[in-house]
Write a structure and sequence with these properties.
This protein is 23% helix and 0% strand. By secondary structure, it is mostly helical. It is globular and about 35 Å long.
Amino acid sequence: MAQPEAKDDALYNLLCDGKISEFNNRKSAGETADLRGANLRGIDLRKLDASGLDMSDCYLRHADLRGVDFSRAKLEGASINGARISGAYFPSELSADEILLSLVHGTRMRYRG
């Protein structure tokens, strides 16, 4: 598995700069973001429209994910160690145990199948 990386992607850079509203606007206008394997460590992602995003293998350590609806995002292989997840809605393919293991120990989340 590759190390998390900074992406050369305009929408990724908006997230890193805390411009969540602009990210959401551009995403809703049809732009796509390459977030697979992205390093999103410590970023405040509250209010992110995560619907349809492929965030597989993302590194979300200490990110603020409170209230984000990930139910229609792909999070397989993502790690959320130490993230703030109050009110976050995760895909049904992720068990509560998988989420907790990732939150506490930094394991990569695996979809049940």
